[in-house]
Design brief:
It is a single chain. This protein is mainly alpha-helical. It has a single domain, classed as Ribonucleotide Reductase, subunit A (Orthogonal Bundle), CATH 1.10.620. The protein is about 45% helix and about 5% strand. It contains eleven helices and five strands, in the order H-E-E-H-H-H-H-H-H-H-E-E-H-H-H-E. The strands form two sheets. It has a three-stranded antiparallel β-sheet with strand order 2-1-5. It has a two-stranded antiparallel ribbon with strand order 3-4. A hairpin with a 5-residue loop joins strand 3 and strand 4. The structure holds fe (ii) ion (2 copies).
């Protein structure tokens, strides 16, 4: 029943919205049953559910069968704010969609909305190979929250975009990740997530792109979009935690096995060779860079000028001096070791991307600290931004992970040295064996530091019936 949807958007008193969502709801449930987590419909999962948007205690924890999860619609509390950037800087935020930016806003919301169900589809088979009940539960937490993010975007489409909004909301349930005829809109969301190393890299690198996109939309002059994305960011933090700590736990376990067995080829002893982990990092990091779009972008300039999409932390007091960005240039790297200076507004994608890369570097340092402490020499790294790109100036000018130029033929012949190919995943058969006992952990990954919601690690996070 749509009336039971937890929300703070006064759904009860908005008859039009209620009718639109009531029509969409059964289609959503069909979508979940068809392409949501496979094989766990009756499992009782210890999940967090958003029940309000208040800073203290917006969530409640308890056992839920996933098809009965209470997906809600929440906006972060209203803030006294002005538009913080672009030509509209210092004017009042918009409570309705300005006619002249309607098309752009709809496109941004649909593009963001499309990624949410896509990731659920990409991850649907992972339950079968989870390394522990703790990890299984975290996977499902990410899945239900991504589905809630779909609700968040559908709310905006239904509430503010009339008939074409409703049509777009239906389309969000029709496209499918990796489908030949109607794929998801962005490449990284059509890439297969075959195993848990993919999953941790996806939540580390691709969800983190989401953080930067949402953060720049949280600055938007369209206030409902700002408030929606601000609340989504509170959930996104957990997804990135899953990814960052997941990779850290692999690094830790692999280094233990390397010392114990005195070898790097860990597949034979049930671990993940660090060279293989590096390949996955190369692949998902570069795939995620493409999500920022072209470094030099007139669309990005338009969005910024219009007050639709700002920079990361545009609203923070001390982050940028010039919020109109009419002056100055930004340096972007070009093939062949060259660089160019482009007008600041055209560089918004590159500016957001560079903030993202810094954030990723921070995680790399933590992983390498774990490796350093355990006494192995191997260090993980991020490939340079020219590596494995499908968008921007480097799409037709491939390089290796250190930035050495390659001909297209060389790239095609050698890319298996740097990104996973069929054999790499299959070699780690242990990664494909589920571990389901309370408190048990697969041999290829270290135990996490603590459980969920202050519960012990041997808690029954998923009750399999
Ligand atoms: Fe999301
Ligand atoms: Fe996410």
């Amino acid at each position: 029943m749509i009336g039971d949807i937890p929300n703070n958007v006064e759904l009860e008193s908005d008859a039009l919205l209620k009718r639109a969502l009531s029509g969409w709801h059964p289609h959503f449930l069909n979508w979940w049953r068809e392409v949501g987590p496979e094989g766990f419909d009756t499992a009782q999962v210890y999940l967090r559910t958003a029940i309000s948007a208040s800073a203290d205690g917006w969530a409640t924890y308890g056992y839920v069968a996933m098809p009965e999860y209470r997906w809600g619609i929440f906006l972060a509390p209203p803030q006294a704010r002005k538009i913080g950037f672009g030509d509209e800087a210092d004017s009042e935020p918009w409570q309705a969609v300005p006619g002249e930016f309607r098309k752009e806003l709809r496109r941004i919301i649909v593009t963001q909305g499309d990624t949410e169900p896509a990731s659920v589809e990409q991850q649907r088979h992972l339950g079968a190979t989870a390394p522990s009940l703790y990890d299984l539960r975290n996977l499902f937490q990410v899945n239900v929250e991504e589905a809630r993010h779909l609700w968040a975007m559908v709310y905006l489409l239904h509430r503010y975009f009339g008939r074409d909004g409703r049509e777009e909301a239906e389309e969000l349930l029709v496209r499918r990740s990796g489908h030949q005829d109607h794929p998801r809109l962005l490449n990284a969301f059509n890439a297969p997530i075959r195993d848990w190393i993919d999953f941790f890299c996806f939540t580390m690198f691709t969800d983190r792109d989401g953080k930067y996109q949402l953060a720049s939309l949280a600055e938007s002059g369209f206030d409902p979009l700002s408030r929606t994305t601000r609340f989504m960011l509170t959930e996104e933090a957990f997804h990135m935690f899953v990814g960052e700590t997941g990779i850290q736990r692999i690094a830790q376990r692999s280094s233990e096995l390397m010392r114990e067995h005195g070898r790097e080829d860990l597949f034979a002893v049930g671990g993940i060779p660090l060279q293989i982990l590096q390949k996955y990092i190369n692949s998902w990091f570069s795939e995620s860079l493409d999500l920022f779009g072209s470094e030099d972008s007139s669309n990005a300039a338009t969005y910024f000028a219009a007050g639709i999409k700002g920079r990361y932390r545009e609203g923070a007091a001390d982050y940028y001096r010039d919020h109109r960005a009419l002056e100055g240039e930004y340096e972007i790297r070009l093939p062949g070791g060259a660089s160019a200076r482009i007008p600041m507004r055209r560089a918004m994608n590159a500016i957001l991307r560079d903030a993202y890369v810094d954030d990723c570097e921070r995680a790399l340092k933590r992983w390498n600290a774990v490796l350093g402490k355990s006494g192995v020499d191997f260090r993980l790294y991020l490939p340079v931004i020219s590596f494995n790109r499908k968008i921007g100036a480097f799409a037709t000018n491939p390089t290796d992970p250190e930035g050495r130029a390659l001909s297209m033929e060389e790239w095609i012949a050698r890319r298996g040295e740097w990104i996973p190919t069929g054999g790499d995943g299959a070699g780690g058969a242990e990664v494909l064996k589920p571990v389901r006992g309370r408190g048990k952990m697969a041999g290829w990954i270290a135990r996490p530091e603590r459980g969920i919601n202050n519960l012990p690690l041997d808690y029954e996070y998923v009750h399999l019936s």
